[in-house]
Specification:
Elements lengths: L1 E9 L2 E6 L2 E9 L2 H10 L4 E6 H6 L5 H10 L4 E5 L5 H8 L5 E4 L1 H5 L1 H10 L4 E8 L2 E4 L4 E2 L4 H6 L8 E6 L11 H9 L5 E4 L5 H9 L3 E6 L1 H4 L5 H9 L1
Parallel strand pairs: 1-4, 1-12, 4-5, 5-6, 6-7, 7-10, 10-11, 11-12
Antiparallel strand pairs: 1-2, 2-3, 7-8, 8-9
Length: 240
C-alpha cells in the first residue's frame, strides 16, 4: 500500500478543512511549491493536489499554482482534482504534465463525457467518489445524489480508469480514523485499485488499512501536517 501526501489549495494556500467545510480551514503553508518540494524530499512517489476553490466553483481557480508545481518537478507524479468537469479542462492538465486527473462530479452529472475521456486517455483518470451517509456527493461535497459508491463504480467498471479515490466526508479532516469497512467493501466490489482518503490520523489506521489487502493506497493530510507521524513512518507501516 502506498502513502500519498495531500496538498489542498484554497486561495493559493495549503489548507486542511474539516468535513469539507470551506469555513473550517487551517492554513499550513502559504508556499505550495515549497510544500510539494518537502513531500517529494521525504520520499513521496506521487502527490495528491486538490483545488478546493475549483471544486466549489466548477472550474480550476488554482491552476497556475498547480502547473507551477508540475513544472518545478517534471519527473514527479502528480494527480489533481477539484473543478475538473469538462473534457477540455482535464485535457489541459494532462497535456501540461499532470500525471492523472481526478474526476467525480462529472461521473454523476456528465457520465458520457467522462467515459469518452477515459477512452481517450486510458489509465490517466482517477474516479473520485465522495460519500456521506452512504450516498455520493458532488460539486465540492455540496450536492447530494441517490447513488451509492458501489452503484457508481459499477457504471465505470469496464473503463480504463487508473484508480478510485474513496472519501467518507464525515471522516475528512476529523482525525478520527478512516471508514475502513466502507473502503474495503468498495475495493472488494471492483477490479479497479481503490485508494482510501479521509480520517487517517495514526499509524494504527494505516496498519489496519494495509491489513485489508485490497486497498492500494491511502491519502494523508492533516496527520502529516500536524506531525502525528512522518511520511517515512507512514510508508514503512503501509509496506510492512
Amino acid at each position: 500500500m502506498n502513502i500519498i501526501p495531500a496538498i489542498d489549495l484554497k486561495e493559493g494556500k495549503c489548507v486542511r478543512l474539516k468535513e469539507g467545510k470551506m469555513d473550517q480551514e487551517t492554513v499550513f503553508s502559504e508556499e505550495p511549491v515549497s510544500m510539494a518540494e518537502f513531500w517529494f524530499s521525504q520520499g513521496a512517489e506521487i502527490l495528491h493536489i486538490v483545488d478546493l476553490d475549483g471544486a466549489v466553483h466548477g472550474k480550476p481557480l488554482n491552476e497556475d499554482i498547480i502547473l507551477s508545481i508540475c513544472k518545478e518537478f517534471p519527473s514527479k507524479r502528480i494527480q489533481v482534482g477539484g473543478g475538473i468537469r469538462t473534457f477540455e479542462t482535464a485535457k489541459g492538465y494532462l497535456e501540461n504534465g499532470i500525471d492523472r486527473v481526478i474526476m467525480g462530479t462529472s461521473a454523476v452529472e456528465d457520465p458520457e463525457m467522462l467515459k469518452s475521456f477515459c477512452r481517450a486517455y486510458p489509465n490517466r483518470v482517477v474516479l473520485g467518489i465522495d460519500a456521506l451517509d452512504g450516498y455520493v456527493k458532488t460539486q465540492g461535497w455540496l450536492k447530494g445524489s441517490d447513488l451509492t459508491p458501489i452503484q457508481l463504480v459499477k457504471s465505470f467498471e469496464d473503463l480504463p480508469l487508473a484508480s478510485i479515490i474513496f472519501t467518507d466526508i464525515s471522516k475528512d479532516g476529523m482525525m478520527a480514523g478512516p471508514n475502513i469497512e466502507a473502503t474495503s467493501d468498495l475495493a472488494r466490489s471492483t477490479k479497479i485499485p481503490v485508494i482510501a482518503s479521509g480520517g487517517v490520523s495514526s499509524l494504527l489506521h494505516i496498519k489496519r488499512l494495509a491489513e485489508q489487502e485490497v486497498i492500494s493506497g491511502a491519502i494523508c493530510g492533516r496527520a502529516l501536517y500536524e506531525k502525528v507521524f512522518t511520511y517515512a513512518e507512514a510508508q514503512k507501516t503501509a509496506r510492512e
